[in-house]
Amino acid sequence: MKKSVLLGTLTLAGLAGVAQAATLDDVRGRDALNCGVNPGLTGFAAPDASGKWQGFDVDFCRAVAAATLGDPEKVNYIPLSGETRFTALAAGEVDVLARNSTWTYSRDTDLNLDFPAVNYYDGQGFLVPRALGVTSAKELDGATVCIQTGTTTELNLADFFRVNGITYEPVPIANDAEGRQQYLAGACDTYTTDASGLASVRTTFETPDDHIILPEIISKEPLGPAVRHGDNDWADIVRWTFNALVAAEELGVTSANVAEMAAAPTENPEINRLLGTEGEFGAMMGLEPQWAVQAIQAGGNYGEIFERNLGEATPIGLARGLNAQWTQGGLLYTPPFR
């Protein structure tokens, strides 16, 4: 009995040691991560005046590149529309889709995608001109609505109006840029998308205070990175890179102190396992011992990334809300590094 158990353990260990994620091989072979991002959504993913990509989702791409390649700059940012994003991922044009995409049943099963993590808990809202005099989405009966096609937003909109016994006229748009343009041109009474996206769009207006986001949140939108189904090793890397950023915030590990804390084991074994000074956790995913250190150094822990791109001190001005740590009343909770 002991011998068979031992052989089984060795077999599993051997398989784990030699298994190589096909996507990881591709990333290392080209020496760059192909990351699918939004074509332009301030705070999440958008090129700045010099053409350098910035944002919450961009920083996650950088963290994955740092964890796998040791360099956060080794990223090819590939802008994808709402209609092309999943096709591009399935076709292998990108290694990971980091484009404010909602994890849904059909995307997980019918499209054969995997969502390794939820990196932003959101919900759909409505943006209206203050002059419209509307204070509730339930007052939008007969309104024209700018709506991005091929999204969960489109389906949620139909459900909300049906449940509330009111009607609307859709104004189809292809992306956030067109939605902003059409809305400001008066082609629609209201623009609907994720509330975070509305906050982002509103900051680009000349007079943001002339527009309000209505109080109703009509859906659950768990946003997160997506990968192709079937490469569990790669999904693990994406999942645990995100978990590392969340755990770092909870444990007080920041971009400023991570190098010092990783120089020698600390008194906290969870920190040691995270930073590679205890155990062989990097090797379990085919990565270097300090893969998480590199990911944290790329842009900081989850809290640093959130505050820099989306937080209350930015023009977008989002509170942490559901995206706070579980110890602060939010939903961020990572499994243990053990």
Automatic annotation (TrEMBL):
<dbReference type="Pfam" id="PF00497">
    <property type="entry name" value="SBP_bac_3"/>
</dbReference>
<dbReference type="GO" id="GO:0006865">
    <property type="term" value="P:amino acid transport"/>
</dbReference>
<dbReference type="InterPro" id="IPR001638">
    <property type="entry name" value="Solute-binding_3/MltF_N"/>
</dbReference>
<feature type="domain" description="Solute-binding protein family 3/N-terminal">
    <location>
        <begin position="32"/>
        <end position="261"/>
    </location>
</feature>
<keyword id="KW-0813">Transport</keyword>
<protein>
    <submittedName>
        <fullName>Amino acid ABC transporter substrate-binding protein</fullName>
    </submittedName>
</protein>
<keyword id="KW-0732">Signal</keyword>
<feature type="signal peptide">
    <location>
        <begin position="1"/>
        <end position="21"/>
    </location>
</feature>
<dbReference type="InterPro" id="IPR051455">
    <property type="entry name" value="Bact_solute-bind_prot3"/>
</dbReference>
<comment type="similarity">
    <text>Belongs to the bacterial solute-binding protein 3 family.</text>
</comment>
